[in-house]
Amino acid sequence: MKVLLIVVAWCLLLAVAWPLALLVLLLAPLVLLAALAFHIVAAILGAALALVKGVLFLPARLLGQR
Fold first, then answer.
1. What is the DSSP letter of 64?
2. Do residues 31 and 24 touch, judged by C-beta distance below 8 A?
3. Max Cα-Cα span within the chain
4. Which residue from 2, 6, 17, 50 has the fewest beta carbons nearer than 10 Å?
5. What single-letter DSSP state applies at residue 1?
6. Within 13 Å of residue 14, how many CA atoms lie on the same side as its CB?
7. Under 8 Å CB-to-CB from 18, ≥6 apart: which residues?
8. Domain limits, the chain
9. 32-57 b/e with 16+ CB inside 10 Å = b?
10. pTM of the predicted model, to two decimals?
11. DSSP labels for 12-62?
């Protein structure tokens, strides 16, 4: 359903302002590549914070605390 709404919105934009619609069509892959870079950075930061949390809670886990 989401894809259908995007296609309909793009068709409306094409009918109203075709140069802008073509620009959106050409820039969409670049936006997706930029978003992919942010997802990779977020995954790395999440893993690093999980490692720090594991190291900080290791003494409590070794002593049997839950």
1. T
2. no
3. 68
4. 2
5. -
6. 8
7. none
8. 2-62
9. eeeeeeeeeeeeeeeeeeeeeeeeee
10. 0.59
11. HHHHH-HHHHHHHHHHHHHHHHHHHHHHHHHHHHHHHHHHHHHHHHHHHHH
pLDDT at position 49 over 80: yes
Output the CA torsion sign for 24, 26, 32, 33.
negative
State both tokens at 6: 């995007």
* Burial of residue 10 (number of CB atoms within 10 Å: 0-12, 13-18, 19+): middle
Q: Which amino acid is at 62?
A: L
Give tens-digit pLDDT for 24-48. 999 999 999 999 999 999 999 999 9
Q: Tokens standing for 61?
A: 């886990």
Q: Position 49: which residue type?
A: L
